[in-house]
Please model this.
Amino acid sequence: MTKIAFITQDVGVYGSSKSLQLMLKGLIDKKYFKEEDIVIIYPRALKINSNYELKKKFYNSYFSKFNNSKSWIMPFSNIISNINIGSTEKIKRLIRNLLFYIFWMIKYKKQFKKANIEQIYLNSITLWPMLFVLSKHIKIIMHIREILDLNKPFSEIAKSTIINKCSELIAIDKKTAFPFLDCNKKITIIRNPFEMKIARGLKEEKYMIICKKYGVNPDKIHVSLIGSIQAVKGQKFFCDIAKKFDNSDNFEFIIAGKGEGTYYRDIVNEVGKINNLHYVGEIENIEEIYAITHINIRCDNFFPLGRTVWEAYYSGCKVLLPYNINDDVSEIKDYLNKEIFLYNSRDVDSAILKLKEIKNCGFSIDNNLPTGNIETYIKEISDILRI
Model:
């Protein structure tokens, strides 16, 4: 059986890390791979305290199931759309990149040879600097989960390196695939894996208990924003929406996610001033938040189709997404104004109007709606990963 290294830039409970954990579990459960055929390579932090937290997350995740795992200092290149970093962070990431290449020469390369790796899977395009040292003779699959911004420094180099070194690309939707469609490289679009049967069950059986746990009123309509707390995610905009409602409107708002820095502190302070808004932190069992959510909203300044959109849909929530006039929304045409609704990006009045419209539609769950897409996802992914 092929020995395959899965390299991930994150070991958290959300986003790309959660997608990879679901993928690995599916591949093992369906017997496409054995545990001993898989090597997990996950990030190592430079600071002792930060590295302790990373290790803790790793051992609380599905990744820890695999005995053959390595912790590496990961390179990182900010070529992603809508993510900007300051000069201090740029210096830190430059140091990380240099350390990666140094450790590759003295340690990581030997680990690779000893493990007899025949195939490599990269969980993010931010890991593209690794391609400079990885052998072109090994099959390399890159999962494109983020939007490549061709206006950023090194993005053109990143694109050409990805095209030249990767055997095949997987994209999560049309938008992430788009920058690579003009090249002669096989790219397969596969929506992220989801299984929200637990959330659907909790919604039906333990709604009152979970509401009490998080201090929300079970008689109100709950609007949630889930994801890391950073400006691009729009938690400030979400706070502005919550301020426009009072008790008579029967809405309560929930923010779930981790954060740090000035923006995070500002959001936490803002939440404390708004009576109908709750911050519940990073929730390991995020199914609990979906279980008490009636409407899940995204507050980006662009049209997003990330994990939380489909997690909410499969959990039986209504979904409210931002969009701009030129955005291609064809991927959700079958769901529009039934399970998924649109509002004008970063327009508070437009969002409020749609929230009230959804409220008037009601929140009964169609039991015929699927709770996930794991079966088809694992089959499609396994066809790519197996040599």
The radius of gyration is 21 Å. The longest helix spans residues 87-115.
